[in-house]
Amino acid sequence: MRLIQHKKEAYWFYRFLSIFYDDYVNPLFWTEHMRDQSLELGQLNNPDYKVIDVGSGTGFTTQGIVKQVKSTNVTCVDQSPHQLAKAKEKPDLHGCTFVEGDAENIPFPDNAFDRYVSAGSIEYWPHPLKGVQESYRVIKPGGVALLIGPLEPENGFARFMANAWMLFPKDKEYREWYEAAGFKNIKVRYIRPQWYRRKGEYGIAIAGVKPLTGTTYSQPTTTVEDEKGSNLQIFWRVLIGSLAGFIFIPIALLGYLGNAFRKNPRMPKQYQERLNMHQAIAMAAILGFIIFVLWLIFK
Ligand SMILES: C[S@@+](CC[C@H](N)C(=O)[O-])C[C@H]1O[C@@H](n2cnc3c(N)ncnc32)[C@H](O)[C@@H]1O
Questions:
Q1: Ligand 1 pocket: which of 20, 23, 79, 226 to mutate (most atoms <8 Å of CB)?
Q2: Which of 31, 92, 124, 268 pairs with 64 at a CA distance of 20 to 30 A?
Q3: Cβ count within 10 A of residue 232
Q4: Which residue owns the Cα nearest ligand 1 atom 14?
C-alpha cells in the first residue's frame, strides 16, 4: 500500500510534520546515538570533504556531519521547502548550502562530492534503486555513500501499519540496491533507539565505495515519473498514511516510559534517552485527555 511513498504525498506530509518534527517526533525514532553510530560508516574523516546530505530535512543528521566536516563544504538537498526552512534556522548549519531538489534526480553533476549521506528519506522514494544510483553518480570515484533507513518490522501488526505508511525495505533489498548500483566494499551496521527492545532489527546504515573504474550513470534530464494521483487521492493517501504512521508514536512513548525504569549504565550520558520538555508536556496532555474520557464514560 505504502501511501506516502510518493513525492507529492511526502511533500504534503512534511508540510505539516515539519512543525512538530524536531521537538516531538524525530527524537523518538532517530537519536543522536543512532546518528553518530551510523555516520562512522560514512568515513567523514576529513574536514575538507565536500559532502551532500540528501533528504536532509530539518538538518538533524547534517548537525552530526558538521561536527566532522566544515559546514561550508556541506550541501543539503530536500524536496520540502518547509523542512529546509527549519534547517536554515540552526546556527551550526549557517555555512551549509541549501537546495530544493529530488533524491532521484539530484541537481548536481557527476563526481561532484567526496561523500553522500541520506538518513531516513528512502522511505518516501518511489524508485529507491534510482535514488541509490544517483548517490553513486554524484560522488567521486573512491568516494563513500551512506544510506540510513528503517527495516521492515517482524511483528505482523507493526509490519502492516508500516507498509501502509511508507517504504520499510528488507535488509536484503538495501544490499541488492547497493550491489546493483555498482558499490564495492559494502558495510552495514544495525541501529535502534534504546526503547526498542524487540528481537528483530529496527534500522540499518549501509555504506559503499564507488570504485575507481566501474558503472557510470548519466545525470537524468527529467524527474523520474511518479505514480499520478488526483488531488483527492493525494489527500486521502496523506491522511490515512499519516494515521498509520502516528500509531508508532504511542508505541515509542510507551517504550520510553519503560526505559525510564531500566537505564543502561553502559550508555554514555549524552546518549541516554529522555523525553524532552515538549514531549513530556504532550504526553501529560494525552494522558489527561484519556483519563478525562474514561471519567466521562464511567462516572
Ligand atoms: C524523516 S525526514 C529525515 C530528515 C533528516 N535526514 C534527518 O535526519 O532528520 C525525511 C526527509 O526526506 C525528504 N524527502 C522525501 N522524499 C524526497 C525526495 N524524493 N527527494 C528529496 N527529499 C525527499 C522529506 O522532505 C524529509 O525532509
A1: 79
A2: 124
A3: 8
A4: 55
C-beta separation of 41 from 279 below 8 A: no
Identify whether the C-beta of residue 190 lies closer than 8 Å to the C-beta of residue 202: yes
Taking the whole predicted model, whether its pTM rises above 0.90 is answered as yes
Taking only the tens place, the pLDDT of each residue in 168-212 is: 999 999 999 999 999 999 999 999 998 898 888 999 999 999 999
- Assigned C-alpha cell, 283: 504526553
Q: For ligand 1, atom 8, name the residue with the nearest CA.
A: 61
- Inter-residue long-range contacts of 200-203, CB under 8 Å, 24+ positions, other chains counted: 200/151, 200/153, 200/154, 200/155, 201/151, 201/171, 202/150, 202/151, 203/34, 203/148, 203/149, 203/150, 203/151
Q: How far apart are CA 87 and CA 52, in angstroms?
A: 14
What are the respective helix, strand and coil percentages of the chain, to the nearest 5? 45, 15, 35
Look at ligand 1, atom 10, and give the residue with the nearest C-alpha: 121
| Set of cell numbers at residue 3 | 501511501
Write out pLDDT tens, residues 117-148: 999 999 999 999 999 999 999 999 999 999 99
Candidates 167, 243, 114; CA nearest to 5 is 167
Domains of the chain: 1-299 (3.40.50.150)
Cell digits for 133?
Answer: 544510483
Ligand 1 pocket mutation pick from 124, 147, 226 by most atoms within 8 angstroms of CB: 124
Q: Which residues contact 214 (CB under 8 A, 6 or more apart)?
A: 141, 182, 184
Task: Report the alpha-carbon distance of residue 20 to residue 98 in Å, rounded.
Answer: 21
- For residue 223, the model assigns a pLDDT of 65
Residue of the CA atom closest to atom 13 of ligand 1: 55
